[in-house]
Amino acid sequence: MPLNCFITGSEHFEKAHVISKGSEISEFINAYHRIYVNSEYSPGFEDIQNIVYLREDLHRGPMDSLNLPKDLRIRRIGFDFINRKSYVISAETYKIESFDWISVPDVRPEYFAWSNKKCMKKLRKFMRGIDPRLTNFRHWVDE
Amino acid sequence: MTLIPKTTNAGTPYSVVSVPSRVTYTYFSSQDCGLVDGENRYWTIYIPMSEVREKCFPLNANPRKPNSIGSNESTDIVVKMRRTISNDPEKFVRLNNGLTCVCSSLSINSSSQTLTVDWREGEGILNGGHTYLSLVTNPTVTDAIVRVEIIELSERFNDPSNSSEKQDFIKETAIARNSNRQLKDFTRSEFEGKHQLLQNHLLDLKGVIYWSEGYEEMVREPLAFTERNAMKAAVFVRYLALTDNSWHWHPSDNNDPADSEILNNLLVQGNGTYDQWNLVALDEEHEKNLVKVAPLGRMLLALVDRIRASMKYETNPDGSTANPVGCGSSFITTEFFQNWAGSGQGREVSYHDKGSNELPKSSPHFVAYMINSIRPFLWYGDTDEGFEFVGWHLDPLSVYDEIHKAIVQEITPQYIRHRSGRDLASNNMVASSVWRNIVRPYWAENCSLDCAVDNFYPQVFFDPSSEKWYQRDNSGTWMLSYVDSDEEWTLNELAPGSSPTGYSRMYVKLEENPY
């Protein structure tokens, strides 16, 4: 994987978990059990095929909403892993901006779909309009 | 000029000037301080108390409406001011900050020592409401003089196209000037209009909630609601958020939740929900602004009453317990009942019938815990038009009646291991067993995620577009349809006698809110 932000190409990037780890990895473990009903989680799974390199502002803003209290945090970034684009919804205007991917991160499609399913409703609906598979993690697991 | 009679929520009558009005006051002295901020003109006027009482002022710009409990000088600022007005009137102008007002225009006639003020919408006293109340309610007129600072707004603010800028100017000034005694968060939110939408759906019940300091529209009959017996705005918002699947887990998103999902810490955080909601309340696009669930407000008040009524301690003529019963042996002797579920017996009143019944206070943690178990029976229907329907699969009060005793039996034994309601409500294992053993079986009987079956469809729902409620009725003419591929709902009127097609059910439109 090239060491650049996969959306902007910036060399100033941070590692971002597509499925958030949450407190004591509870969020990832919960997601993992939902996605793979018959599979057991093992420590470290959260770092495998679940990390993208993102420019700092994209990571802390649209991805993790660190400027907001915990209970108001919601993803404002969607990953179109089919068409290799990302959609970012502005916190001020709520307009959706599209970015072509510069590189393709090694992330499982079901993880991207899980993340998409958890993002802002407006963005979720936008992506469902593009391709319903973008927000349907089951499609990628059941394939 | 017209005077409007007002009553503080402690029952003190007083009057204010209606707007728009032109009022002429006789003054003691006046000073034009000029365009101090480069745009608006600042005046300092000293006015005799008699003029304030006779002519009055508008109070529209003041976020904190004045109130007085009318007796205790140590705690009531109005009583203190009145004492100065009566006993040391000459000191009043020195000891009191006076009134700060904003107006559209002002003219001085120095020969007659009068000033004429044009008061328009949103103008008047923006700080000094309690000073005003003291002056107009003092038993006697004395020689007291009050200092009045008047900000005469720039002419451009009178242009209707600048009305929003004018509102913001007044709001900013009012909030800042009231900072000598900090406005409470909920007072500020009320002034900023954040409560408005929630209030609109409560109709005549909005006055059972204390929305701001000195809130003037409290319910008066059959019981006079006050700050003490009304529900706090933050508590209402906390409960309302518990009905919202954007704030809390719901089976439609995941019918097999992890233990940690069932209980959100917000359940047991006093003002946690309100503080966060405050940040997004006016954000139309934010999913947690509570707009979606606001129509549930009246039902929620009835549900809160029902929860507290179920914990009201009542006895039969022979002394045996008449209520609560069925919650386990010796339930009323447990710490859980005495300190939490049934705490504060007879200390509070019901909300939905405006105080007609005495009810236990009940810990808000307990009430929240119970609402948390009712939420799965609520229903949300997304549309492609930017709004969501909201309603219920099964009447929430009936659900509560059906399951609360079993829930109480399930959690009572756990209580002895905890010190407070907060501890129990933070216990994910207990919450999980409540969901799996009690709530889920009943939910599975009455609700469904399968659009091919009846229980998938709501019994009752609210449509924000028509602002009406709808109820399941095969003879109805309104068809609620589900589009499986888009996970969206539509509502259409059909000709009488039509049959539903596809994934849909028929409904009748209700003229009244079901609660």
Quick summary:
The complex is a heterodimer of chains A (143) and B (515). With 143 residues, chain A is α+β, with helices and mostly antiparallel strands.
Topology summary:
The complex is a heterodimer of chains A (143) and B (515).
Chain A: E1 13-17, H1 26-35, E2 51-55, H2 56-63, E3 77-80, E4 85-89, E5 96-100, H3 109-117, H4 121-130, H5 137-142
Antiparallel strand pairs in A: 1-2, 3-4, 4-5
Chain B: E1 3-7, E2 13-17, E3 21-26, E4 29-32, E5 41-48, H1 49-55, H2 77-87, H3 89-95, E6 99-103, E7 105-109, E8 114-119, E9 124-127, H4 129-137, E10 145-152, H5 163-177, H6 185-191, H7 196-202, E11 209-210, E12 231-232, H8 233-241, H9 259-262, H10 272-280, H11 297-309, E13 314-315, E14 321-323, H12 335-341, E15 348-349, E16 358-359, H13 364-374, E17 378-382, E18 388-392, H14 396-415, H15 421-425, H16 428-446, E19 460-463, E20 468-472, E21 478-483, E22 488-493, E23 504-510
Parallel strand pairs in B: 6-10, 11-12
Antiparallel strand pairs in B: 1-2, 3-8, 4-5, 5-10, 6-9, 7-8, 13-14, 15-16, 17-18, 18-19, 19-20, 20-23, 21-22, 21-23
Helix pairs in contact in B: 1-4, 2-3, 2-4, 8-10, 11-14, 14-16
Walk me through the structure.
- The complex is a heterodimer of chains A (143) and B (515).
- Chain A has 143 residues and is an alpha+beta fold.
- Chain A has one domain.
- Chain A contains five helices and five strands.
- In chain A, a hairpin with a 6-residue loop joins β4 and β5.
- The two termini of chain A are 26 Å apart.
- In chain A, 35% of the residues are buried.
- Chain B is of the alpha+beta class.
- Chain B has 16 helices and 23 strands.
- In chain B, α1 (49-55) packs across α4.
- The longest helix of chain B is centred in the C-terminal third of the chain and has 20 residues, at 396-415.
- Chain B is globular and about 85 Å long.
- The A-B interface holds A 26, 30, 33-34, 68-69, 71-72, 74, 94, 120-122, 125, 128, 132 and B 247, 254, 256, 258, 260-261, 264, 266, 272-273, 275-276, 279-280, 285-288, 382, 384, 485-487.
